[in-house]
Design a protein that fits this description.
2 domains, 18 strands, Rossmann fold, about 35% helix, globular
């Protein structure tokens, strides 16, 4: 079984969010199960010189982009045993940042077509091309339109994973042929509500649609969550499946994390106290062993539920409780947390931006971890928090609902609330703070959280079952070990 994982970002080369973590961890987990999985992504300016030193130039191809043909250099690298292909075109990718450019439509049309065009050069013919989000949604469209009668391509299957349905790649129909190179007779593949919708095209053209949690797979059939795509998804529920994301437990390991103050584990949790002291010292907050620390590491945007926090934080601070917040995003939320830190210097600390090492110290030093999301396709933060013994407080939505069970239930590992309501969230936080006071029960809860298995092992097995079902291949991976 051979899989090509197409992603617009992947750890450790280029990252802006959770997709990069998935693209860095899932292929590694698949490879360990003798699945020949390789990854392809753009060669951005953001790729560090250190990573570039390990890359090897394989050659180049020309890629059709509507009426143009564009250069595509192919570099190969290997990380954690996985082969990566980084596609070079300086006109498209030698820029600051990964996304947000005026010509993103053309940039990722180029990348989606290049995924198919490089296969003869790299001499890797996958059974499955696994595409992710709107940036690679055109790959199954192009495969269906232009490669269907070409023998090396015609047997390939495609999987399209929706990581966040809010971002769909929507453009004016006027650029259908001139930018995307899709003939007018085939416009129905990508047209939705009078516009080009690349995510709709991926859903339409692929063989299997997946999302990153079972609950989210059900939620996106509802207009509240689907951002207009509920119609196309309801018509294709037969090829929709939710598979829960995992985390790289080797990367996120409090027993061996150099970014935190002291190592600790479920069996020997003593170091977590030192991590809490160090975090509070770093954030200029006083340390009190009896006061729980609530951590937040988040993009500061509306769908993360921050309006609930904004509404009730002042009330929560009446209790003996401290908040440590790391994130950036909408100006209103940045201003709010900055002002709260100024008004309550002994209870609230805020760092604007995203500092990866500090985020790990927040996970390690927090007692509770707050995620009151309005929607959360899967969420990685709650999984990392569990790994580091910070008990999640979450709303029951998407992957949060699939991974966190309230402590009132058997094997509960967090504090949950259902209604999107500030006082319900506040009650959940208060329950967590009160539970923190019973040290014996709290230590049992922390150990249970840290022992939760949120590795990629189970998820990788689910994807392998899916790949086998699509390709009708059953356990022949060992015979193809040389292709890994």
């Amino acid at each position: 079984m051979k899989v090509l994982f197409a992603s617009s970002e992947a750890v450790p080369y280029a990252a802006s969010g959770g997709l990069a973590d998935v693209a860095g961890a899932l292929p590694k987990a698949l490879r360990r199960r003798l699945i020949g999985c390789r990854v392809v992504l753009p060669l951005y300016e953001a790729v560090s010189e250190e990573m570039r030193e390990s890359m090897r130039f394989l050659g180049s191809v020309t890629v059709p982009v509507a009426w143009r043909r564009q250069y595509c250099g192919v570099f190969e690298a290997k990380h954690d045993g996985v082969i990566y292909y980084l596609l070079d075109n300086q006109y498209y990718f030698k820029r600051e940042g990964l996304y947000g450019h005026y010509d993103d439509a053309e940039r990722f049309a180029f990348f989606s077509r290049a995924v198919l065009e490089i296969l003869p050069l790299i001499d890797f013919w996958p059974d499955v091309i696994h595409c992710n989000d709107w940036q690679t949604a055109l790959t199954p469209v192009y495969l269906k339109l232009f490669y269907y009668d070409n023998e090396p391509y015609k047997k390939m299957k495609t999987v399209f994973t929706i990581h966040n349905i809010q971002y769909q790649g929507q453009y004016d129909m006027q650029i259908l042929e001139d930018v995307f190179g899709i003939p007018g007779w085939a416009k129905s593949l990508v047209e939705y509500n009078g516009a080009v919708n690349l995510m709709k095209g991926g859903i339409e053209a692929c063989d299997q649609v997946t999302t990153v949690s079972p609950t989210y797979a059900q939620e996106i059939l509802d207009p509240w969550y689907a951002y207009g795509l509920e119609g196309i998804l309801k018509e294709r529920t037969w090829k929709l499946q939710g598979i829960l994301n995992g985390i790289d437990t080797e990367n996120y390991d409090p027993a061996a994390d150099p970014a935190i103050a002291a190592p600790y584990s479920a069996e020997d949790p003593a170091g977590k106290r030192a991590c809490k002291e160090a975090l509070l010292r770093e954030m200029n907050l006083p340390f009190d062993e009896a006061v729980p620390v609530v951590g937040m590491v988040s993009r500061l945007v509306g769908h993360k539920g921050l309006d609930l926090v904004k509404y009730i934080l002042e009330e929560l601070l009446i209790q003996p409780i401290q908040f440590v917040v790391l994130g950036s995003g909408e100006c209103g939320y940045e201003t709010f947390f900055r002002e709260m830190a100024e008004r309550h210097p002994d209870k609230v600390a805020f760092r604007c931006g995203f500092v990866p090492a500090l985020s790990r110290r927040i996970y390690a030093g927090s007692d509770l971890f707050l995620m009151p999301s309005k929607s959360e396709p899967c969420g990685l933060s709650q999984l990392i928090a569990l790994r580091y013994g910070a008990i999640p407080v979450v709303r029951e939505t998407g992957g949060l609902n699939d991974t966190i069970t309230d402590v009132t239930k058997e094997n509960g590992n967090g504090f949950t609330f259902f209604a999107y309501n500030a006082h319900d969230m506040g009650t959940a936080v208060t329950r967590g703070a009160e539970a923190f006071g019973d040290k014996e029960k709290w230590n049992i809860l922390v150990r249970r959280a840290m022992e939760c298995d949120n590795s990629w092992n189970r998820s990788a097995d689910e994807y392998i079952k899916l790949y086998r079902r699509l390709t009708k291949k059953q356990g022949n991976e060992g015979k193809q070990r040389e292709t890994l």
